[in-house]
Amino acid sequence: MKVSRNIDPDEIGFDPARLARIDEHFGRYVAAGQLSGWQIVVTRRGHVAHSSTYGLRDVESGAPVEADTLWRIYSMTKPVTSVAAMMLWEEGRFELTDEISRWLPEFADVRVYAKGSAAKPYTVPAVEPIRVWHLLTHTAGLTYGFMQTSVVDGLYRAAGYDLHWPAGVDLAAASVALAELPLLYQPGSAWGYSVATDVLGRLVEVVSGQRLDEFFTERILRPLGMTDTHWWVDGDDAERLGALYVPDPRTGRLLRHEQLGAAARQRPTLHAGGSGLICSAYDYHRFTQFLLRGGELDGVRLLGPRTVRFMTRNHLPGGQDLGALSVGGFAESIFDGIGFGLGFAVVQDPIPSRVPSSVGEYYWGGVASTAFWVDPAEEITAQLYTQLLPSSTYPLRAQLRQLVYSALVD
């Protein structure tokens, strides 16, 4: 295990002995063969209070997790895409209430699933057009094929949109294909985790006139110094990439998922705004600090502070929480007491979840069990990296919150 920090934790309100419980606890997962290894970073007031690595990034080769290990962050790409969209919004390029069909005409006449089977679905016209804010809040009526909880999910899979998307399809073609599928519910009437951020990425492309990867590099990654963030890796970078695992359904021990894991070593045709990035903990640390500082880092401002505050408030209809509005199956977030902003889950009330946090804290994670949160009230950021599918296998995120907040003693 390697532990580092850039300040004595007690200077920023943490008990060092209590912070040490983080590594003791998560080390037990490795000892039990349930995780291959992990990396954890906790900061407060801009200082790293705890940064540790443990175990192996690749069990088969014996390569250890190191400070510069690269991780598939999957849906932790979504906040970056949301930032990209809001940068364009700040330039006056669109309104959040605009219909997306203004730029994506394939969404002009969407229909909504009402009843029937996958072989013979019955649909009705959408009574409300999909608007930009619907994409940012996952209230557009879109879904994911891998949910496997509805007829619409099955139609996504039949069209080739599961964990893997069709080979050779770019984001423009994917947007057209997704628009031809029925919506799961009327836009703005519910919350459903979905490909909405991928469609948002296509909107960024059309509005900006750049491919999404080009926009990311020129407008976000390079300005923030996120030079270790990629859409795919090869050469020495591929050697630094953590291997991807799933639990053996019989024993719970690790099985390598090379078929899915190998995708990170291939140049993509489609730059998925909802799940495409690979990065180091250092790079995403810089992204979380940019958010905590209200849209600025090291003299580079990408968003205004009021925009960041606006993004990280609950935008769900009627101020409701995910518990009241969510449809379909999803385990990425606790629902009760949690709202959703423009790209982030937002804590409205920490009590229903029975997990310590602050009102106004915002966060998200990825399907391979990575996670981050930003707590403006306590000036804390935290990140967790490992490569285990699915993220619901163990309660890693809730446990990290327990350990971090119980170590805060000022």
Automatic annotation (TrEMBL):
Domain annotation Beta-lactamase-related: ranges: 23-402
Q: Name one GO molecular function term.
A: hydrolase activity
Keyword list, A-Z: Hydrolase
Where is coiled-coil annotated?
none
Q: Name one Pfam family in it.
A: Beta-lactamase
**Can you say what this protein is called?**
Serine hydrolase
Q: Tell me the organism.
A: Micromonospora cathayae
